[in-house]
């Protein structure tokens, strides 16, 4: 079913549905950018269509909504453990095709990887998707190369154009919000080309460890981990036990995002560590995104959103790295 309404009617829809759902979308955060007097686009809760940024790519992915940066798993005392309550409201997320594919990767790791993570499941079961189409390919995107430029796994589709909002409803649970409205055909359009194109090497083997190209990143990377932070498919975390000052026998255990690019990520008991070289860390990340994950699950982990290229302060390009690796592997055949 498809419907068309003006901004006022759509805001009424958001108000009604907001009684049951917490609604998240890309929003403009003025003055919150990386540098002084710059803005950023990041996911936040919305109540009006005017708050939603449709025509620009968010710097952060919507991952942080269902996999929080810091998440309390349980509270503990001397003799008890209590899990925090999960809010009753469901979650509605406005996101693009590549981000829907990215959440599929999170599901693979946290739900279909031999063990189901109950903390992730509690939030994931509450989520429904509102698709936002990309009218043009954004800078550094290579979603077409990764096959994530199209999707049919959404519950609602919303297009804003010239003060009018077009909606496609695929989920019957939302039908009641459109009762009495005239149905019209509404379908999303998807981009079919990017300026950036990536060729995944098909002949990767042990020779990849000896590729001289990794040395470039040993000198350029500063191990800030920002590429992992903005990535929609990175799933690594560490644990923190927080002890309260008033009683050192009570506190909470938190799950916190981690980065395979930062110092200390591979530290082990006894003071040992591996992949201390930044080039080795880059190799680990690249191989995981375009080889290891695919070998195990049958599709690539990277979805080509290009956020890692956008955010890197040293202008390191993941897409360029993969293309250079592909060229190197072709030359040694």
UniProtKB/TrEMBL annotation:
NCBIfam families membership: sulfite_red_A
Native source organism of the sequence: Clostridium aciditolerans
SUPFAM superfamilies given in the database record: alpha-helical ferredoxin (SSF46548)
Origin superkingdom: Bacteria
Record carries keyword Disulfide bond: no
Gene3D superfamilies according to UniProt: Alpha-helical ferredoxin (1.10.1060.10)
GO molecular function, one term: metal ion binding
Pfam families referenced in this protein's UniProt entry, alphabetically: Fer4_22
InterPro entries noted in UniProt: 4Fe4S_Fe-S-bd (IPR017896), 4Fe4S_Fe_S_CS (IPR017900), Helical_ferredxn (IPR009051), Sulphite_reductase_A (IPR014259)
Name listed for the protein in its UniProt record: Anaerobic sulfite reductase subunit A
Residue stretches making up the 4Fe-4S ferredoxin-type domain: 211-242, 293-321
Record's signal peptide: none
Keywords assigned by UniProt, alphabetized: Iron, Iron-sulfur, Metal-binding
């Amino acid at each position: 079913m498809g419907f068309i309404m003006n901004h006022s009617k759509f805001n009424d829809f958001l108000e009604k549905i907001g009684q049951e759902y917490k609604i998240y979308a890309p929003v403009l955060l003025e003055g919150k950018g990386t540098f002084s007097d710059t803005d950023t686009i990041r996911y936040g809760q919305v109540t009006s269509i005017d708050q939603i940024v449709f025509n620009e790519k968010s710097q952060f992915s919507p991952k942080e909504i269902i996999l929080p940066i810091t998440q309390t798993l349980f509270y503990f005392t001397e003799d008890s453990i209590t899990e925090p309550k999960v809010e009753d409201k469901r979650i509605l997320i406005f996101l693009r095709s590549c981000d829907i594919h990215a959440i599929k990767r999170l599901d693979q790791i946290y739900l279909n990887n031999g063990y189901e993570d109950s903390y992730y499941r509690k939030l994931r079961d509450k989520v429904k998707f509102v698709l936002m189409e990309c009218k043009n390919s954004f800078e550094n995107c290579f979603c077409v190369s990764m096959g994530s430029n199209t999707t049919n796994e959404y519950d609602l589709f919303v297009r804003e154009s010239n003060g009018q909002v077009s909606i496609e409803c695929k989920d019957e649970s939302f039908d009641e919000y459109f009762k009495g409205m005239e149905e019209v055909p509404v379908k999303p359009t998807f981009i079919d080309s990017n300026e950036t194109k990536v060729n995944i090497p098909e002949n990767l083997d042990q020779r990849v460890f000896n590729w001289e190209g990794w040395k470039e990143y040993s000198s350029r990377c500063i191990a800030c981990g920002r590429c992992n932070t903005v990535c929609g498919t990175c799933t690594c975390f560490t644990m923190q036990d927080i002890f309260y000052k008033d009683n050192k026998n009570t506190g909470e255990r938190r799950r916190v995002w981690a980065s395979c690019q930062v110092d200390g990520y591979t530290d082990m008991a006894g003071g040992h560590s591996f992949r201390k070289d930044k080039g080795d860390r880059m190799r680990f990340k690249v191989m995981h995104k375009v080889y290891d994950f695919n070998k195990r699950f049958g599709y690539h982990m990277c979805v080509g959103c290009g956020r890692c290229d956008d955010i890197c302060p040293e202008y390191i390009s993941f897409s360029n790295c993969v293309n250079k690796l592909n060229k190197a592997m072709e030359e040694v055949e």
